[in-house]
Amino acid sequence: ISAFNEGDITFLGSNIPHLFRNYPEYFDEKSQKRAKAIVLYFSDEFVNSDFFNLREMAAINELLQLSKRGLLISGRSKVVVASLLNEIVEGNGIGRLIDFMSLLHYIVSEGEYEVLSSLSFTNTLDQQDLSRLNKIFDYLLKNFQKDITLLEVSKIANMSSAAFCRYFKDRTNKTLITCLNEIRIGHACKLLIEKKNMNISEICYECGFNNLTNFSIQFKKLKKMNPLAYRKSYNSL
pTM score, two decimals? Predict the structure, then answer.
């Protein structure tokens, strides 16, 4: 679950519950902003065929298995992968399949990606879970810039606070505060990249954090660098 920025590319295996939520300004009736995505689907039957069990395909097969936890393409690979995706969309016949294999080979060779879910992730959600979690995440994504209490979110799930904590950790393998911090840090990354006129302190409070120290700690925990270093590293790409 996250917001997304221009140029983001994800590689998701089958049946992974996921939500990419756009920013509030895109939902304003008067807004002219629009989001566009290219989506490439391929079947389980294809990737589980004997072809991918060949010795020469071992590295790509490993990538396909890892995609069951979800991958986010990173670094300079994003530009190349985007270009390859466009070639696949515009191609046809056997050429399209060759381009697809080239895409997988490039991702494996460069290794510029991060895994989105933990090693212990298993997809055990049923339809009732998905409906309830959608309500929870919709609330978090609409209100993350404000103070959010456990009691408020528990009411959304129609549970006691104690029951909600157990439920949420069991279904997402995260605590509520961890999930909320991820949403806030995701928004901070967008602001660091797009709003050059905003300083780190302004971004901290805009994302829902109440003090700069905690913001810096949580940012470094998730991004392995402080906010200023993140801004500089992105500007250098």
Answer: 0.60
